[in-house]
């Protein structure tokens, strides 16, 4: 079942306008690589953020595991690249696709969620001193992305 779904998603992604994003399966169909550009107007603008997507063998019935390879200063992404977003946890649905997940992660860069932070200190800074937060995020983007 998983391989059938993965092949369907590969075909569907080839039909999508990805903009500046990339999404591709590796030789191991359960390991994908993706990248999203930092959106214009965000402190991540100009950066390219790479990630690995690990699909479980019962995909799409279980959510993929996403790991950011590129370091990023973000309240919902840990310093080790782990991601905190509801669609990868309790809001996962088999109706979601890898494309939709990567699109959601791209949106997360523009619109972080301080109510569910993986890094509380960054969320606190974002709420209390957004200018300082954005300066640090911009600096990390220049350094790592």
UniProtKB/TrEMBL annotation:
It comes from Thelephora terrestris. The keyword Oxidoreductase does not apply. It comes from the Eukaryota. Coiled coil: none annotated. One of its GO terms (molecular function) is ubiquitin conjugating enzyme activity. This is E2 ubiquitin-conjugating enzyme. Keywords: ATP-binding, Nucleotide-binding, Transferase, Ubl conjugation pathway. Gene3D superfamilies: Ubiquitin Conjugating Enzyme (3.10.110.10). Transmembrane segments: none annotated.
